[in-house]
Amino acid sequence: MSDNDLIIISYEDRNVFKQDSPFDNSYIEKMAIIELTEEDMNKNDIKDDENILVYNDNGEVVVKAKKMEEGDVGIASMPKGPWFSVLLPNNIEDFYKHINAKIKKTEDPITTIEFIFD
Amino acid sequence: MICLGCSCLCDDLEFKNEENKITVGNACLKGFKRIDAFNKNRLISSINKKEASIDDAINKTIEILKNSKKSAIFGLENSVLEAQNESIKLGEKTGSIIDNFSSVYGGYLINRFLDGSVNTCTLDDVRDNCDVSIYWGCDPMSTHPRLMSKFSYYPRGKNRQRGWEEDRYTIAIDARKSLTANITKKFIKVSPGRDFELFKAFKDVLSGKLPKIGDKKLLMNVGTSIKKAKYGVVFVGDGLDYSMGYMNDFIDLINDIGFKLQPVMDCIGFNKLLFERFRYINSIDLEDKSYAKDNSIFNLLKGDDIDSILIVESDIASYLPHKIAKKLKDINSIYIGPHSNLTAYLSRINIPSSISGVESGGNAYRMDLKEETAEKVIDSEFLSQYEILSRIGEGL
Amino acid sequence: MRDETFIRNTYDISYVAKNNKLSPMEIYKLLPQTNCKECGEETCMAFAFKLLNKGTTLDKCTPLYEEEYKEERKELEKILKPIMEADVTETGLVIHEDLCFGCGNCVVACPVNVAEDPKGCAIGKGASSDKVILKVENGKVKAQNIERCRRFGEHKILCNACITPCPTKAIEFPGG
């Protein structure tokens, strides 16, 4: 279990709709995820659907790891939304740069919205 | 019916309501969900998390705005022009700052799109003439699902009769293989935030030099297609803003290759309205009609300049850094919209509205600024956003 | 619990998507191969074809439900599940509704739709004629008039016009 630096890029998930409630299980299943390449998963001893801690100077969040169909080693992606927002910097100058974060295997449950925002 | 689900504003929806069973023909899933969700996850009128009547919630809002030293109005990207105009009126009355999502993503490009410094065209022109389209930092298949089937790739157009295989060439440029990249003829992957290197590489290719970075063969190949293009269009989205600081280079490149620009963003209609009135598209202080970067939602919530904010149908809290979004809990925040979301959850007052273009009518601009009129198709008790905003305005 | 079903569904779809070659032969191999005619078909191979095109169901093969074929039955249920759940038409056209999001690329690209509906599908609009094959309803594409499909009938050709433009591989012809 070693820490690993990743670049995280964000995207809009076509399966998430503005009308969805952020407290629905189906919303959490779609949004509280990080997609990783197989190599990055192996490097960190993470399997598909396991919970992982994603963290950087701005915050930390537990999400589910998903295997990326095709991608580059060292680049992960997360859907734009409440979980990704935990990793965003507070300065608008840095806001538009890509996000760096580390990952770690964890037994902790997926971070809830209440926990992030209360 | 007209669909206000995204800025494609599809005009060919077939709506049927038989014995309370709704059927919608031709709408994409995004558009269908907007209509179908008329009885799902609706916002409940509340004050400080306690259910309240709409009248009480509106009166409380009036009281807050009366006592506010400085307030802001945010959102309305997916609203109708009538409500957008009413929000400006309200903002002028209260001397509020008015801002929208374009201050977070896409603002610079939309500004250039509106100020006439780059070539543009209508989506109907795209359908009839476009032979080369580039999707740069945008994924219309996810965000504007029918853009490519209705206009830019698959349809037969007046001067594009032979179909997409022969008549249209498409290139996706993105940091990840998006749904759009799955179907375009070429896909150029850029490292996150390195788009500007590609501007230079393209410039080299177009002036007959070898590109210094990337897959040289692919870039030469794409460069040749761009040079040969008779009617080229570049669609741009949020993804490109990561290369801020190089935006002028990007616009120069588009002008150099003689392509047209089309931002694929939803707030463009409201931006046009603000631009025509104030020459700015966002971050405007309506007290003195001035623009300042500090008036953007990001900086407003980070600082202490405002003590209240009125947000209309925009889930901004899901997009901002969570520490900044949390600020909504510390100031008098009012959320107006048809459905509940994270922004509503963090706001102190919730006022439910009808779904624009479904439960109430109104006008709206398509992404190419064509105006359409949407009509009400479902009866509901909910007030429209226009009605809510004008009631607040009258109460002041 | 919820998690599990979500994951399983995704897995099954990818199984079909990646195993385009799911052929009558693969199904046949798992059948009793006795040509007992219990299912109403002449041969087990004919039954396999019908299964693939959704013309019959697995329970028609009664011997499969005997202890001897328990393993085969389980495997068959697994590989056929995505096809049985999907909307399969007479030409073998499968629409995976959970992957489709109604973009209409196939509706506009289908050559039959274009020919039948010059003022609608042909110019990018939704279907305005009853004679089209593909039409989007409630955000998902539906197939109708399937006898007009170029893959149907005596002079059929292996047309791919609806498959290539689909960004999520929601349309396929598993039979090939």
UniProtKB/TrEMBL annotation, chain A:
Residues 30-111 form the Molybdopterin dinucleotide-binding domain. InterPro entries: Asp_de-COase-like_dom_sf (IPR009010), MoPterin_dinucl-bd_dom (IPR006657). Pfam families: Molydop_binding. GO terms for molecular function: molybdopterin cofactor binding; oxidoreductase activity. This is Molybdopterin dinucleotide-binding domain-containing protein.
UniProtKB/TrEMBL annotation, chain B:
GO terms for biological process: methanogenesis. GO terms for molecular function: formylmethanofuran dehydrogenase activity. Gene3D superfamilies: Dimethylsulfoxide Reductase, domain 2. It comes from the Archaea. This is Formylmethanofuran dehydrogenase subunit B. It comes from Methanoliparum thermophilum.
